[in-house]
Structure formats: C-alpha cells, structure tokens
Amino acid sequence: MRQVSRRAIIDIGSNSIRLVVYGGPPRAPVVIYNEKFAAGLGRGVLATGALDPADSKVALQALARFACLVKLMDVESLQVAATAAVRDASNGGAFIKKVRALGLPAELLTGEAEAAASGLGVIAALPTADGIVVDLGGGSLELVRISAGKIRETASLNLGIFSVAELTAKGPGRLRKYLQKRIADIPWLWTANNLPLYLVGGSWRALARVHIHLTQAPLPMVSNHVIPCRDVDNLVKQMELMGKEGLYELPSLPASRVPMLPDAAALLAALNDIISPSYMMVCAFGLREGLLFQLLDEAERAKDPLICGARFAAAAAQRFPGYGDALAEWLGALFPGEARELLRLRHAACLLADLGWSTNPEFRALSGEELALHGNWVGLTAQDRVIMATALYATFGGQGDDLARLSSLIEPHIAARARIWGLAMRLGHRLSGGASAALSSCPIKIDGGLLVLKIPQALAALDNPAIRGRLARLGSALGLPETVKIG
C-alpha cells in the first residue's frame, strides 16, 4: 500500500478558521480532511480595532481541537497562518501568543506575504496563468500580478467582505469610488486591463455556484469555472430578483455565504468595470496551497500538476508500472507539433487509460468518462475534462452518445481529435497487452499519407485480425489508408 504523506495547514482568517490536511503527491496535493469554524474574527476588528473576546474564545477552542487532531494524524508538516483580522487587531499579538501556547507554530502573515501566497496558489494549479489574482477574504483584498510562473507585483487592500458590506450600506457608488481611489495608488494595475482575473476565496466560489445555476452549465464544477465579463451585470440583477430567500434554496450554495453574496457581487461588478479584464476564472487553489507550494524546490515546482496527479492515481491500480508514459510516448509520433495544452491532456489520458481493467467490462467506457469528468484533477477547465473524457470513452470502446450533453463545451474538431487519441490508445492496449516493451518495439507513424504500424519479425505473432481492425478504425478516423509492416 502506498504511503501518503500528510501535510496540514491551519488558516486563521477574518471570517473562518480552517484546518485542511493534504495527501497525494507534493506537486498535486489532494484534500483528505477539511474542517472550519466560523469565528468571525474580522467583525470585531472592523468595529473596535481589536479582536472581540467572545470571538477569540471560539477561535481558540477551535484551534485547540485542530492542535489535537494534527497530533493524532501524525502530519509530516504543519503551517499555521494568521491573516488580516489578527494582523490588523490591536490585540493580535496577544492572540498569537495564545495560539502558540496550544503548541501551534502560528505565523502572522504580512499583507505582502498573504498576497504572494495566494498568487503562488494559483500558479500551483495553473502554471501558465497570466493575469491578476484577486483574493477576497473577510478582512482584506489581495491583488497579485502573475505571469510565467512568477509573482510580479502585489498589493493588499483593507477591503474584505465585511468592509465591502459597510461601504455598500452607505449608498450606491460608494464602493466603486473607494475602489477607484485605492486602485489609482497601484500603478501596475493601470495597465492590467484585458488580462484575466483569477478569483480566490469562498465568496467568489459561492458566486460561481450562482452563475453555474443561472447559466445551467452542463458540467457544474466551481474549480476553474469561467465567468464571462458580459455576464456580471446580469448576475447581479438576477441575484437581486432571487433575493436571499431564493439564494438559500440553491442546494449547492453554503447557507453561511448567502448573507455576503450581494456584497461580493457588487465588488465583482466594480472590479469588472474598473479593471476591464478579459474574463474571470474562479480558482480552487489559493493561500493554503500557495503555502505548500513555497515548500517545494524549483525542480518539483516545474512539474505539471495534472501529470503528477494522474500518475499518482494510476500508481495504485495500474497493471504494469510505466505503461501510461510509454503509451503517451508511442502516440507522440501520430501527433507531432501538438499544442502543449493538448499534449498534456493526451498524456494524462494515457496515464489513466490503464485503470479500466478494474471496472466491470460493460461499464468501462462510462467509467473512463466519469474518471475524467469528476476526478479530483488540478488545473483543469470544464473543457479540458470533456476532452479527456472523450478520449477515455473511445479508449474503452464507447459507441453511444453519452457525452452529447457536453458537446457544447468543446469545438467539434477538438472532440474529433480526442476521439482519435482514444482509438489510438485502444489499439495500443490490444497490441501490447499492457507491456511497454511491445509499444517501443512496434512504432506507429504517418508516412507519405499512409498510417503505418511496424512490427518486427521477432514479434510478428502480435499481428492478428483484432489488431488490423483497430488500426483500420484509427485510419478511418484520420482519413488515411493503413497498413501493417512486418520485419
């Protein structure tokens, strides 16, 4: 059985205190335990400048429980980070001492450190992200310019969801005027228009759930959900029509987030108008994952989180170690020059394609589809998931229209390309039986408008009608005649 290292983060935020324990590979952490308490530390700081004694008591009780849990869990590493509420409170230092007395190595993050960790969290999930991270917490708003896997600029504003509520209560336009004034003091934001905004935080995730409901998104996943800029004004209007009563009725929406949603929507609309981004993407990774990312060396950071996660998942149930990578390499000759984003999706699909044996044969195509669509993969959009699902569905012999409901998410030519991947993987399965050596010895390529599978004389017995049939189906999908060359 694989040993899974456990890494824990305790996040002492302005709205809630959360313990998250991660397993999985270092580059693609998977949540294995998640618990939070709504302590609301930021409310007292906003009202009096100090942490409220009653809220502090609730927070310390929660932290005492978390300290006990992480000790029992025998975690490999533990980080405890306090953010805006404790940072801004006049009695924040005294609170930190009480936290440390519980045996927790609490660290008080500066606004810049908090912003950097949030930015790194997005980079950890989306290494090619190029835009502005907007992390909305209870007590502050972090803005981070990221590109090429690096933090470029940071800013931290005292504009958490609690203070947004205060501003919106003062009348129309107050929030927007305040935000315009603050952004005017951040020169690097002046040229940030037409870049995406990467939204981090529970309030944004809740808004995404409302947007998913209103647009009837065919694959309702919050992680990396895109909110087009053109939808923002309508999102605000529809929420006003629904009212809080209507929002409480949405089954996927945490009830604790409903009171904050109108203010979060007002802030999103103001950001949309002032910054003029290209689009907005809601990210599941943020500060906590950024703190984990900071612990990695450069070599580990450079790895693709999708490939690391898929390889880790395959390791538990694969028939023959290394087969998925060998299959990806074997297919490479058929798709030279493929775009990087497609190449990584194909590679991940190859890694997962060796898991079908553990499923009932009558449902393998559906299980491949399910694995891609609903697996806990890092950094995938809904479109990416459908591409992988299309490939795995074809790999396991799917013939129906089970993915028709999702066809609107990807272009027809991309769907056709993914199906070709699947047919090629299906051929590789039958040719090799899962033995990597068979693939390296029997190359497949397109040569002079002909699809050629070459089998050496020593392995000529691998050739049979089933192999020819699968090669013919692949050739038909490619629009090419096919042949097998022995010798």
* Biggest pleated-sheet summary: 6 strands, mixed
- The SS-based structural class is alpha/beta
Provide the CATH topology of the largest domain. Answer: Nucleotidyltransferase, domain 5
- What is the approximate shape? elongated
Number of strands: 14
Descriptive overview:
The chain starts with 6 loop residues before the first strand and ends with a strand. The protein is built from 20 helices and 14 strands. A hairpin with a 4-residue loop joins strand 6 and strand 7. It is elongated and about 85 Å long. The strands form three sheets. A six-stranded mixed sheet has the order 8-7-6-9-11-10, with helices on both faces. It has three domains: 7-109, ATPase, nucleotide binding domain (Nucleotidyltransferase, domain 5, 2-Layer Sandwich); 112-288, 2-Layer Sandwich (Nucleotidyltransferase, domain 5), CATH 3.30.420.150; 304-441, Hypothetical protein af1432. The protein has helices at 41-48, 53-73, 84-88, 92-101, 111-125, 161-169, 174-184, 202-215, 232-248, 261-275, 287-294, 298-301, 305-315, 323-332, 340-352, 364-374, 382-395, 412-432, 436-441, 465-478; strands at residues 7-12, 17-23, 30-37, 77-82, 106-108, 131-136, 141-147, 150-157, 197-200, 225-227, 280-283, 444-447, 450-455, 482-486. The longest helix is centred in the N-terminal third of the chain and has 21 residues, at 53-73.
